[in-house]
């Protein structure tokens, strides 16, 4: 068991393209870290540098206190689960699981025991003698997990392991990965471009953009206090509304509407205002009103997403289906739930926090 | 078939049967001729039905016949052909798969150059460099030796390209998984690459065995010692009789025997054969 | 040229892996080829003691030698005849087999084996079939009023080697055409049938145009085959005769160099042949690139 320290790591490709730019992350022992970002943000490159599949241009990676920059992947005491599983097609499931152990000279009896244990944990015992091509996608995924588990490594590295599965299987495998990781307590780094997967799996999220870290934090911190407009629009579905407004003293103007903030605003002048769709509600008596012209409605069952405009700015609102919707709505928002970002650069203005009324995360049984 | 046209289907069958008859004619005639004695053959055109000298002719050719023309025993030549074909097959596959492995899975200075050097062999068949190649083999003292007969033939651009093409289709993650699993280059080659290449190796075996078996010009150039004669050279010697008549019944028996191994391989390993043929020419 | 995203780091190993192939290639291919180029510009004295640089003399002589020009034209005729004959037959067989769903495999087996027959054996078989005393064909031809004797008649000798060479190559063309035909989408055929075109019309208006890449590829391969791989057929049957009537370019290199020991001229001929192969290989690979793209 070991923590991972990534210190000032960069990747520069021939031709000067900087895929990863001076990234530092401290990962505690047993922590589940998810690297998330759009394609090309450098998340896979970073993971592959930790794995030793990609040379580190600058900075240092240490696993369990050992600097591993110059070590072969096999010497780093890590195991990796690949997007396309990368199972050896000519070997049986058993042989796939045993291969890494055999290469390390593990005694036969211990290999048998470890493979049996991993197979039981993943419920693939009855497939041990099959070749990978005789398995379904979900079963292959389990075998790939098994190959990582049997090694009992210091860390698991996951490179978009679920993106080849269909939506339903993805959800159940997601749960299973989380459960296994809790049970084994193995430090994990997980790469995905799917923000929902990132939110549900992570102890801490690392949001990457253009090779740099935008934000590191727990899923709720990142959701409720995004550090930049990039994070705000990337995490959460529907994406956070970003509209332009103007702060003046303790008042905010968005198009025709003016909202009293109840306290002095953290800045003055034009800002980008972030509003979560679910934070808007029909205005009650005495609340500041955002006049909202409805364009169209998406029915999701439990809620409905109403798209429309405030002034000339697009906005999406999540409303309970019980609320009747006409052509015009009067919306209101708790000023504490507004997010402000600098117009220039998109950085967050003012400290954010997980708002009162959001319960602490459910403690997972270990 | 898109629609059913019985008459056209009938014509198709008729055409193919006729085609097969024409294609098979020379072989049929050879088999027939190998069952007659020389007197019957010299007295006019070949009969269309088998004669009664089959066992006599074949036992003659397999035991003693060829000695008359200063040739070694037929089965000795057959053994030489077999050795040559097998050595060339194994040699070509071994050095090609190693070259392809180096070119695909390593990055090193002069990699491009190595690739082009191998490519150039495609443009230099033995036939266009007869004299200088003969000379170098002679200078190296490799005339009349197994080394001289086989080694110069085992460079292979086509086999190298086939393996390279195949390796490129293996997902990169296979190598990465193996590295994480602690496999070094040669372990990866032996445990992963070699087993995955099985079908391609099989297909190449079929094609290259035929290639080695039918070699003619090269053995002709580098061997003068009858001890190294192959069947193909024996065929030529049997039909170039200075005086007297060609023993056609024996020549035909010899031809039938010389054709048999590669034809059987093609028929019984048809799928590998077709795969080998169509893959290597890409 | 591409490698894998990740590669092994090893300085020495790749060179070791390549060593056998490169060694053989350099010693037995490139060095001799370079020697051929060198000696094509030189003349050796009769005792082989000294050589003098003579420039393009050997090439000039070749192109002034009617024998060489004849061999050049003859080789072209030979190559085009064998290619045309074996490709037309190969295509016809492939089109027929492609029509048959159930029995196709049987016919395929019946038609592919000649590929495995050694050229020298193919030559001997046809030579025997056309042999003027014992052969079946002269006997039949005589009934049609044709006197066949390829030992005396040069044209007949040429026809003989064309038939022998084409016979061996039909199966190769057949297999490639069949593969080409089978990759024509069935839906295209069905669409054409609905548009009212019959099987024969479909073959000429849809299958054949779609086969044009295969056809071009086979054309190059067949010309290459006829020029270089038919040496054993000639050597085992006509030995280039009668009166040089079947002396192809390759056979002439062999005669002048290996048998006649005329090093300078034979080297110049080798160099010219190399240039022909280079052009053929270049064209073939240019085309392969295109094929890979779609």
Report on the architecture of this protein.
- Chain C: It is found in: Cell inner membrane; Cell membrane.
- Chain C: Keywords: Cell inner membrane, Cell membrane, Membrane, Transmembrane, Transmembrane helix, Transport.
- Chain C: It comes from Rhizobium straminoryzae.
- Chain C: Its main location: membrane.
- Chain C: Pfam families: BPD_transp_1.
- Chain A has helices spanning 43-51, 93-103, 108-122, 137-149, 167-184, 195-201, 219-224, 229-234; strands at residues 4-12, 18-27, 32-36, 58-63, 66-67, 78-81, 155-159, 187-192, 204-209, 212-217, 241-248, 251-254, 257-260, 269-275, 280-282, 290-299, 304-310, 313-319, 328-333, 339-341, 348-349.
- Chain A is α+β, with helices and mostly antiparallel strands and 366 residues long.
- In chain A, strand 11 (241-248) and strand 12 (251-254) form a beta hairpin.
- The longest helix of chain A has 18 residues, at 167-184.
- The radius of gyration of chain A is 24 Å and the shape is elongated.
- In chain A, 40% of the residues are buried.
- Chain B has one domain (65-280): Orthogonal Bundle (MetI-like fold).
- Chain B has helices at residues 6-33, 38-42, 54-63, 74-105, 111-120, 130-139, 146-150, 157-169, 172-180, 185-196, 198-213, 217-222, 231-239, 248-268, 270-280.
- Chain B is built from 15 helices and no strands.
- In chain B, 70% of the residues lie in helices and 0% in strands.
- Chain B is mostly helical.
- The radius of gyration of chain B is 24 Å and the shape is globular.
- In chain B, helix 11 (198-213) packs across helix 15 (270-280), helix 13 (231-239) packs antiparallel against helix 14 and helix 14 crosses helix 15 (270-280).
- In chain C, a hairpin with a 6-residue loop joins strand 1 and strand 2 (51-53).
- Chain C is 72% helix and 2% strand.
- In chain C, helix 3 (66-99) crosses helix 10 (212-228), helix 5 crosses helix 7 and helix 10 runs antiparallel to helix 13 (263-293).
- Chain C has a single domain, classed as MetI-like (MetI-like fold).
What's this entry about, in short?
Helices cover 23% and strands 33% of the residues of chain A. With 366 residues, chain A is α+β, with helices and mostly antiparallel strands.
